[in-house]
Amino acid sequence: MLSDEKRNRFLQLLKESTKDEWVWMSGYLSALTQPSLGGSSVDVSFTPPVSIDSGNDPLHGNLKTQPIQCSVVYGTETGNSKKLGTELVKKLKELGVSAKLKSTDTYKAKDLKEEEYLFVIVSTHGDGEPPQAAKPFIQILADSKDSLSKVKFAVLGLGDTSYPLFCQTGEDVDSMLSKLGAERIQTLGKCDVDFDLVAKPWMSELISKLNAHSKTATTQSATQTSQAAKPTSGGKVVYEGSVITNIVLNDTGASKSTRHIEIKTTVPIDYQPGDSAGFLAYNRDEEVNRILSLLKTDRETRVTYKGETWMAYDLFRKKVSVRFLPDRVIQKYASLVGKEIPSGKTDLDVLLTLHTSENKLELQTLVDILEPIVPRYYSIASSPSAHGEDEVHLTVAEVEIETFTGIKTGFCSGYLSELKEGEVVPFFIQRNNSFRLPSPDTDIIMIGPGTGVAPFRSFLFEREQNSGNGRNWLFFGERNFVSDFYYQTELLELMDTGVLHRLNAAFSRDTKQKVYVQDRMGENAAELLKWIENGAIIYLCGSKDPMSKDVDRKLIEILTERTFDTGKDASDYLKELEEMGRYIKDVY
Ligand code: NAP
Predict the structure, then answer these.
(1) What pLDDT does 49 receive?
(2) How many CB atoms neighbour CB 241 within 10 A?
(3) Burial class of residue 202, CB neighbours in 10 A (0-12, 13-18, 19+)
(4) How many CB atoms within 10 Å of residue 269?
(5) What is the H or E stretch that residue 406 is in?
(6) Exposure string (b/e) for 431-469, b if CB count within 10 Å is 16 or more?
(7) pLDDT of res. 369
(8) What CATH number does domain 239-281+375-430 carry, 2.40.128.630, 2.40.30.10, 3.40.50.2000, 3.40.50.11480?
(9) Taking the chain (588 residues) in consecutive chunks of 10 residues, what is each chunk's mean pLDDT?
(10) Which of 543, 545, 549, when mutated, tests ligand 1's pocket best, judged by the most ligand atoms within 8 Å of its CB?
C-alpha cells in the first residue's frame, strides 16, 4: 500500500497523464515486476483511485473496457504486402492484442474513424501508381470528411528504388492519414525490392512500441470474457452484438436474396470455425398488435406461460411462435373454436381472422396451445483469427414459405434480413465439434452450394492466418453466375494468394440443363480421387434434401473407380470415410 502522501501524488500524476502515458506506465511497472529484471521486490499494488473522473479512471474508463484494436490494411499487386500484413497480424496477436487483416479493395469507409491503430502496408507500381486494389482505399481517404484524431497509424511502403517515385503510394497514404488528423506513431517505412530488409526491423520497432499497451490488453481480455458470461436458461452464453453490416450478396436481376450480415460485440466471442450462431427471433411489432386487437386484449394484460407471468405484448413479441404454425397447433385451435380447419402452414393472425370463435376466446386458453419460439442456427461465415474475436458474420438466405394466404418470408431469416445497422441482436454460439478444420497440413475438399458456403469462408480465412501445407478445394453452386456468385472477389483473391488451390463453381440456371456441384465433382473425379487417397477431408454443407443425398451418390460413383479393383463396395467405403471423420456434413 502507498502512504497517503504517495497515493495522492500518484493520483495526481494519473490525473495529469494521458491514456497513452498510462499505457507506458503500466508496461513499465509490469516490466519492473518481472523477476528477470530484478523487480520482484517492487511493490506495485495500490488501492484503485476513487476520485478520478470516470472518463479517465483506469478501472472504469475506456482503457479498462476496450481492448486494443489493430487493423492491418494491405494493398497489393503481387501478394507481398499481403504476406507482410499477415506476418504483422500474427505478431500483433502474439502480443495479445486484437488484430484484423483487411484488404484495401474491400475496406469499408465507415470503419475509418472507428480505427484505433491502423497499419497500412501498400506497394507502388510503375510511375508512382497505387496497385489497382489500393485505389478504393485511397479514394476513401480522399473523400473522408471525418477527423481521425483518435486514430493512431503507421505506414509501410513497398517499392523499387530504380523508379523515380519510390514508394509514392506509401508516402501518399502516410500524408493523407496525417492530414485527416490521425497520429503517426512510427515514421513511414520504405522497402526496396528486397523488402524484408526494411520491413522486418520496421515491424519489430512497431511491436515494441505496442508492447506496453498489449500487456494492459491481455488483462482486459480476461476481464471481458467474464463480463460476457451471461448464461441463458440452457446454460449458453448470450452475446449482445450490434449489426455493423447487412447487405444483399446477390446482384441486380437475381431471383433470390441472400444476405451477408456482420455482428460486432464489445466482448470476445468464444467460437471456432465450423460453429453456428443461434438466434431467437422476435415476432414483428405490427403482427403482435394485430393479434392483440383481434383478441381485444390490452398490451399490459397479464397471462401465464409455462409457469411464468408475462405481459400479453411481450409474450406475443418475444416468446410464443405465431408464424407458420404447425398442424398440431392448428388442430388444437380448431377444437378450441369448434371448426374444421384444413392442414397447412398458417399464421395465428390469419386463424383469428378466418376462423373466429362463436364464444369469446379466452387469452389464457389460446396461449396454452401455443409453442415457444425456438432458436434458428446459422453457420458462422467469419474466422476469429482473420476477422477478430468480436465479430461473427452470417450468410442468410431469405427463405420464402408458401402459406394459405400466399408466399411469406421465413421467420428468422426475415427477422435477420430486416436488422438495421446499429441494431442490437442477442445470439449464442452452437458448437459443432465434429465440423472442425484438421491440422494445417491436411488437404480439405469443401462442397458448399448456396448458403452452404458460409463455414467454408470461415475455414479459408482461418487457414489463411494459420497456413500449413494443406491444400484447399471449394465446390460452390448457385443459380446464376452474374448475380449469385457469393464472395466472388474474396474467393478469387484467396486463389491469387495461394490459399484456395481449386475453385469449381456450378450455376444451375445459366444453362438449359441444370449444372450442380456434383456435376463439377464428376468432371474432376480423377483429381478428387487423388486428393482423397492423399488423406483429404471432405466437408459438405447446405441443404439436406435432395442436395446432400445427390452429393453422396456422386461421391459413391467417383469412389467406385477406386474400389472397382478391390471388390469393396463404394458406399461402404464412403461410410468408412464418414466414420473416420473424413467425410463430414453439416446439412439442414
Ligand atoms: P439452395 O436452395 O440450396 O440452392 C443453391 C444451389 O443448389 C442452387 O443452384 C440450386 O439450384 C442448387 N441445387 C438444388 N438442388 C440441388 C441438388 N439436388 N444438388 C445440388 N445442388 C442443388 O440455396 P440456399 O439459398 O442456401 O438454400 C438452402 C436452404 O437451406 C434454404 O431452404 C434455407 O431455408 C435453408 N437454410 C438456410 C440457412 C442459411 O441461410 N444459413 C440456415 C438453415 C437452413 P436450383 O435452385 O436452380 O435447382
Answers:
(1) 25
(2) 21
(3) buried
(4) 25
(5) strand 406-409
(6) ebeebbbbeeebbbbbbbbbbbbbbbbbbbbbbbbeeee
(7) 96
(8) 2.40.30.10
(9) 77 73 59 37 26 29 52 90 90 83 89 93 90 93 93 95 89 96 94 90 89 56 45 72 96 95 95 97 95 95 95 96 93 93 89 88 95 95 93 96 82 95 95 96 98 98 90 98 95 92 97 97 96 96 97 95 75 94 96
(10) 543
The protein residue whose alpha carbon is closest to atom 28 in ligand 1 is 543
83 within ligand 1 shell (Cβ under 6 A):
no
Class of domain 444-587: alpha beta
Domain boundaries, the chain: 69-215, 239-281+375-430, 285-369, 444-587
String of DSSP letters for 13-32: HHHHS-HHHHHHHHHHHHHH
Contact criterion met (CB below 8 Å) for 64 and 267: no
- Nearest atom (ligand 1) to Cα of 258: 25
CATH architecture of 285-369: Up-down Bundle (1.20)
Q: How far apart are CA 157 and CA 172, in angstroms?
A: 10
C-beta of residue 450 within 8 angstroms of C-beta of residue 484: no
Which residue is closest in CA terms to ligand 1's atom 36?
588
Q: Whose CA is nearest to atom 40 of ligand 1?
A: 396
pTM of the full structure: 0.71
User: Which set of grid coordinates corresponds to residue 129?
Assistant: 501508381
Residue of minimum CA distance from atom 42 in ligand 1 = 378
For residue 245, report the distance from its CA to the centre of ligand 1, in Å. 23
How far away, in angstroms, is 396 Cα from ligand 1 center? 11
Asked if 69-215 and 444-587 have one fold, the answer is: yes
Closest protein CA for atom 37 of ligand 1: 397
Q: Is 268 in the pocket of ligand 1 (CB under 6 A)?
A: no
Q: Are 85 and 199 in contact (CB under 8 A)?
A: no
The four Cα atoms 349, 426, 110, 107 give a dihedral, to 10 degrees, of -110
Pairing of strands 258-264, 238-248: antiparallel
Amino acid at 525: A
CA of 261 to the centre of ligand 1 (A): 18
Coil vs helix vs strand at 301: coil
* Topology of the domain comprising 69-215: Rossmann fold (3.40.50)
Closest ligand 1 atom to Cα of 451: 26
Burial of 136 (0-12, 13-18, 19+ CB in 10 A): middle
Question: 543 C-alpha to center of ligand 1: Å?
Answer: 5
